[in-house]
Amino acid sequence: MQELPTAFETADIEAWFRTYSPRLHGNPDDFYAYLLEQEPLCDVTGAGFWVVSRYEDVNRILKDPVFVREYRNALPEQQRQELPPPSEEWKPVGELLDNWMLFRDPPAHTRLRRLVSHAFLPRSMERLEPRVRAVAEYLADEMAEASRPDLIASFAFPLPVIVIAELLGVPSEDRELFKAWSRVFAGVLEGGERPAGFAQQAKQAAEEISAYFRDLIAERKAAPREDMISELIAAHEQGERLTEQELVATCVLMLVAGHETTVNLIGNSVYCLLRHPDQLARLLARPELAASAVEEALRFESPVRMTSRLAAADYAIGGRTIRQGQSVNVILGAANRDPAQFERPNVFDVARTPNRHLAFASGPHFCLGAPLARMEGELALSALLSRFPRMRLADAEPNWHPSLLFRGLATLPLYL
């Protein structure tokens, strides 16, 4: 049995949500073990939220309709009427986030998800696969020109940007704009303490990206193409009850969600393999394990650490009661290391089966883009390993993004 860490206390759980800590976030494995063994259902009373880490509990909360995303839906009717309007400073950001399916409940969530879901059906992925493979191979060839390339800047970042840009129908040459906007929205989603002036930066990014997509939508209305934006416009014009603001917000969500997490998935997959040379050798000997290796990387270094829900009614779980209106933070990274669900959870095994991880969450908000992310991850590994079977890490220590919410590398320099 794994020796339990002793250097943590309940106060560390609250600290997890306040500001980035190399001790807690940079190398979270011991903290996850502490949560699972000592505080699997933790009521952080002073902060007003719960933290849930065991796989069974996390999966249950994500699937149960009692737990909602919209704050007003967790409140009694009287309190809903008393909610204050959003501040002017955050209004442009709120107008986008309030129309993201990610933060909506049925029936709005169901409607928005249905409109976009066809883009990620198996036949759509089959049509996209040759293009993703070609982009991955092209970027791998470009990497070969550098003596010490950074995988993130040279490969993991541009691949999903090019792919999601083509899916939406936006110019991939605008990817530096997308990078800046995506990082700001990642900060918006983070929570915790924010630097001075961040609200103004977020407001500007929200206004810029909204204007960008409004212009693009106007272009597609005049001259439709075979892309997602044109299809969403067609649905809007055929009476699918998609408002102009929902159309803009959905485009922004596809760009941000389709980029940030996939960069992390690709970078984390390569990092895990290079840190586990026995598994790298195994994959090189059996390339057909690429898809399984991606699943294991998703479990072992989950690109999104956690997500949250709100209780719309009192809820009994594990002998405790979560009260109506309370926030519940479910720690996906910890659930994916739960020994009750995964044999040898702290071992990276590219052939692990079964591997029912929660990296894409579960329930009605299961990641819509999971098929695309999986395909990009598999084709990325295949392109890199066939081109650079002897690649190795150039730095001894990983350079993780200082993020509370996401788990991903800022840089990953390699020797090829």
Description of the structure:
- The structure is a single chain.
- The chain is an alpha+beta fold and 416 residues long.
- Helices cover 52% and strands 9% of the residues.
- It is built from 18 helices and eleven strands.
- The protein has helices at residues 10-16, 22-26, 29-38, 55-63, 77-81, 91-97, 108-117, 122-143, 151-156, 158-168, 175-190, 198-222, 228-237, 244-275, 277-285, 290-300, 332-335, 370-387, and strands spanning 41-44, 49-52, 67-68, 306-311, 315-317, 320-322, 327-331, 392-393, 399-400, 409-411, 414-415.
- It has a five-stranded mixed beta sheet, sandwiched between helices.
- A hairpin with a 2-residue loop joins strand 5 and strand 6 (320-322).
- Helix 11 (175-190) packs across helix 14.
- It is globular and about 65 Å long.
- The protein starts with 9 loop residues before the first helix and ends with a strand.
The computed structural class is: alpha+beta
Taken in chain order, the helices and strands follow as HHHEEHEHHHHHHHHHHHHEEEEHHEEEE
Tell me about the largest β-sheet.
5 strands, mixed
Q: How much helical structure, as a percent, in the residues?
A: 40-55%
Shape type: globular
How many beta-strand segments?
Answer: 11
| Helical stretch tally | 18
Q: How would you state the average pLDDT, rounded?
A: 91
Strand content: 5-15%
Strand order of the largest sheet: 1-2-7-4-3
Question: What is the straight-line distance between the termini?
Answer: 38 Å
Computed Rg: 21 Å
Spans of at least 5 consecutive residues whose pLDDT stays below 50 are 1-5
